């Protein structure tokens, strides 16, 4: 016994009765083959990302069921015969919990990486300050360490420093934006 | 951190700004990515509908595989485009 999920797209030009008829036929097949219907989901008419058989929208139906492998076979045979079915897809469903446990073989690499990142996120301003201070120190060092150099060579270096700081600031902003987009999953594009 | 190595940079630093990216799915400890979750998948395709490479999104190898299969399934069901524009 295995869990499957079958999705199929019914063409939009059918009457409501006909679509429900097709759906009941399919669920009948599942029950006839001694499968257990776990969940039935209807998204209704949805716009397609690209036209299929010149239809711009279709009726999405999802069946999540448990049973032997002959059920998906029978369903797909039926789908192929039915004109009104535009597309179908059957997927084996994982029954395990959707949590990925860390393997023992890999010691804390991920764990150390994640908190470090978090720190960076939590105190971005402080770090930025620190970074600037460091750079300022470096600048001083360079200036003091290279008195023999000509002044002309020192000036462009300073410009570079400024640019670098700007870059860094931009990067930080980007980081923040990324975070925001992670929280609000829908708004991206 | 990359910042420490900044002292002895060459000319290439100007074009190459390293940034540590972490796989968003690892952070959440998810294993499978559902093909029905179009809103999430949309963030991993480019303007033209291509699957974003790992080097851009920072996804780990494990989850990149999951994403790509999920996107391909979603494409078959016309939830996502094969090509756009």
List keywords for this structure.
heterodimer, A: alpha+beta, 4 strands, disordered C terminus, B: 85 residues, mainly alpha, 30s Ribosomal Protein S18, 4 helices
Number of helices of chain B: 4
Largest sheet of chain B: none
Q: What is the H/E string of chain B?
A: HHHH
Main sheet attributes: strand count, strand direction, barrel closure of chain A: 4 strands, antiparallel
Helix/strand-derived category of chain A reads: alpha+beta
The CATH architecture name of chain B reads Irregular
Q: Give me the CATH fold name of the largest domain in chain A.
A: Alpha-Beta Plaits
As a whole number of angstroms, the C-alpha radius of gyration of chain A is: 30 Å
Number of domains of chain B: 1
* Average residue pLDDT of chain B: 83
CATH superfamily of chain B: Ribosomal protein S18
Supply Rg of chain B.
Answer: 16 Å
Query: Low-confidence spans of chain A: pLDDT under 50, at least 5 residues?
Result: 106-162, 176-189
Proportion of residues in helical segments of chain A: 40-55%
Q: Could you name the CATH class of chain B?
A: Few Secondary Structures
Amino- and carboxy-terminal Cα gap of chain B: 40 Å
CATH topology of chain B: 30s Ribosomal Protein S18
- Largest two-chain interface: A-B, 37 and 31 residues
Gap between N and C termini of chain A: 41 Å
Low-confidence stretches of chain B: none
Task: Explain what this protein looks like in three dimensions.
The complex is a heterodimer of chains A (189) and B (85). Chain A contains five helices and four strands, in the order βαββαβααα. Chain A is α+β, with helices and mostly antiparallel strands. A four-stranded antiparallel sheet of chain A has the order 2-3-1-4, with helices on one face. In chain A, a hairpin with a 2-residue loop joins β2 and β3 (55-67). Chain A is globular, with a radius of gyration of 30 Å. The two termini of chain A are 41 Å apart. Chain B is 35% helix and 0% strand. Chain A binds chain B through residues 7, 9, 46, 48-50, 52, 58, 60, 62, 87, 89, 91, 94, 96, 98-101, 110, 113-114, 117, 131, 134, 138, 164, 167, 171, 174-175, 181-182, 185-186, 188-189, and chain B through 3, 6-7, 13, 17, 19-20, 22, 24, 26-27, 29-32, 35-36, 39-40, 42-43, 62, 73, 75-82.
């Amino acid at each position: 016994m295995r869990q499957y999920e079958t999705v199929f797209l019914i063409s939009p030009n059918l009457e409501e009765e006909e679509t429900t008829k097709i759906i009941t036929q399919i669920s009948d097949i599942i029950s006839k083959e001694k499968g257990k219907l776990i969940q039935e989901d209807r998204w209704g008419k949805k716009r397609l990302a690209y036209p299929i058989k010149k239809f711009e929208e279709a009726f999405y139906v999802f069946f999540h069921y448990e049973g032997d492998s002959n059920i998906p076979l029978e369903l797909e045979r039926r789908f192929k015969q039915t004109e009104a079915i535009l597309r179908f897809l059957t997927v084996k469903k994982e029954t395990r919990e959707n949590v990925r446990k860390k393997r023992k073989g890999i010691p804390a690499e991920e764990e150390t990486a994640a908190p470090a990142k978090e720190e960076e996120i939590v105190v971005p301003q402080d770090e930025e300050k620190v970074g600037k201070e460091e750079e300022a120190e470096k600048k001083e060092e360079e200036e003091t360490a290279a008195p023999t150099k000509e002044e002309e060579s020192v000036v462009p270096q300073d410009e570079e420093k400024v640019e670098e700081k700007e870059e860094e600031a931009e990067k930080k902003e980007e980081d923040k934006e990324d975070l925001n987009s992670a929280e609000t999953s829908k708004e991206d594009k | 951190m990359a910042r420490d190595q900044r002292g002895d940079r060459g000319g290439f630093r100007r074009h190459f700004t390293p940034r540590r990216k972490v796989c968003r799915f690892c952070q959440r400890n998810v294993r499978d990515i559902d093909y029905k979750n179009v809103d999430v998948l949309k963030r991993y395709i480019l303007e033209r509908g291509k699957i974003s490479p790992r080097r851009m999104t920072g996804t780990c190898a494990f989850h990149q595989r999951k994403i790509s299969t999920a996107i391909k399934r979603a494409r078959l069901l016309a939830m996502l485009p094969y090509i756009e524009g």
